[in-house]
Amino acid sequence: MGAPQHLAARSDRSLCNERSLGMTVELRYTRTHEMATATRTVPIEKLVEGLRQFPEAAFGPTEPLRRFLEETPVSPESLSPYLNWDRQHYTRNLIDRTPLYELLAICWEVGQASSVHNHRDQNCWMAAPIGRLQVENFRVVHQDLQKGRCRLEPLNTVEMNDGHPCAVDPAEPVHRVVNAREFNQRAVTLHIYSRPFDTCVVYSPEQGTCGEIRLHFNTRFGKPVEH
To answer: What's the pLDDT tens digit per position in 98-143?
Structure first.
């Protein structure tokens, strides 16, 4: 199955590229070694085309799609129709959605972070074609959603960048994503959720509180969403 209509091929620009099966070869020069190293990237349309070829069973374990993201880095230029920035809050921009999964681009200004949250028992994979971010993982020691009370313990922090996508651990799925100020650059992450969900639980580790929120998109398929 090919990519949907709104993902029809667009022209890409890079430092130096060649076309081969829809892939772009970017040549990045390093002064230290005075040599060129090639990083092969694909337009977002090719990533969607690949996702739509995965059978349902591939979305159960986390490693197949994590490896797919690692082997299929997306060209930042191809994401331009889905990039939308807000100084007050990160933005959620829907790229593709099927009954099996949804694919989002999330745009982070410097210093922005998500709440600590879960994914409603759905799997999640993340990649960072632009910038780098910290993923802070937590263990839920106690949760009483009806009373809005919880207790969390920090587990670990990992860095996500253009060479290191990650999968959320289904056994310990609660986390937050941070575009740390010391990184001093905007960032864009791609998120695959399977299956799609419209609500999640957010946590305040400091206050010991939790509650359910409804999720919204800032754009859908490249077009603004009115709230």
So the answer is: 999 999 999 999 999 999 999 999 999 999 999 999 999 999 999 9
Among residues 221, 204, 205, the alpha carbon closest in space to that of 213 is found at 204
Alpha-carbon gap, residue 205 to 154, rounded angstroms: 9
Q: Which two tokens stand for residue 39?
A: 């990083």
Residues found in the chain? 227
Between the alpha carbon of residue 105 and those of residues 26, 90, 159, 172, 204, the distances in Å are: 22, 10, 18, 23, 25
Whose tokens are 């410097």? That residue is: 110
Contacts of 12 (CB under 8 A, 6+ apart): 24, 43, 75, 77, 78
Distances (CA, A) of 211 to 118, 147, 163, 203, 227: 11, 9, 34, 7, 21
pLDDT confidence bin for 39, thresholds 50/70/90: low
Phi, psi of 49 (to 5 degrees): -60, -40
pLDDT tens per residue across span 54-97 = 999 999 999 999 999 999 999 999 999 999 999 999 999 999 99
